[in-house]
Amino acid sequence: MDIYVPESDEPLPVLYLLHGINGYEGSWQDMGGAVDTLCKMIAEGRCEPMILVMPDCNKWPFKERPTHHGNLWKCLFHYGKLSREHDLELSISDLMDMIDTTYCVSTCAIAGLSDGGRIAANVANLRPDRVRKIGLFSPVLHKDQLPIDSTQQYFIYAGKQDIFAPSAKRFHKHLLRAGYPHQYIVLKGNHNWKMWRQCLPLFLKEQTE
User: Fold this and answer.
1) pTM to 2 decimal places
2) Cα 35 to Cα 17: distance, rounded to the nearest angstrom
3) Are the CB atoms for 187 and 199 separated by under 8 Å?
4) CB 148 within 8 A of CB 120
5) Nearest alpha carbon to residue 40 among 201, 203, 163, 155
């Protein structure tokens, strides 16, 4: 697990960042520049200081993780089966309790990219008492993952050429029909880190509003 904790005398918001199927706990910093982006936004007054928690959500044995997507649907099916077997959502819920007791924290948000978006949505439903804002970047979602708490705030981001843009749009329509307030943002880009690096500062900014 990678974690960034800025110096502060006040309780800090905490944001959990979840990677996709071929990621690892360092993905959000190594490829997404998460800490650098946060520090720059804080320095520019565009974001408040917060704790970043970047867990390893991948239960694929490390040496077996795909280095490229290949048949992405096949990967998702296999990885989805593995993640269900290993109860990733329950592990992240336990992690939240550990972070709450270890650091002085205030609000809690979660964001995930690709299949990490699916996990983030599940965690938000598992812990509506704790998670208030949810960022879904190129998410793989289904209507059975609709929020159970209408006071939670959802932010859905997808690239115009994103392979999972249809999935994000369908979930947006499910939220509309169910009457859940949310934001649905379409950006330039594909299913890759170049697009997700656009999503992160947009979602970070939402933490101060």
Assistant:
1) 0.88
2) 11
3) yes
4) no
5) 201
Element (H, E) at 133: strand 131-137
Per the listing, tokens 């996709």 go with 20
The domain spans of the chain are 2-206
- Measure the CA–CA gap between 159 and 58, rounded to whole angstroms: 24
49 φ/ψ angles, rounded to the nearest 5 degrees: -60, 145
Contact 56, 88 (CB under 8 A): no
| Token pair 């998460």: residue | 34
* Cα distance between residue 118 and residue 54, in whole Å: 16
The CATH code that applies to domain 2-206 is 3.40.50.1820
Q: Label the pairing between strands 2-4 and 51-54.
A: antiparallel
pLDDT by residue (tens digit) across 70-111? Answer: 454 455 544 454 444 447 888 899 999 999 999 999 999 999
* Cα 153 from Cα 125, distance rounded (Å): 12
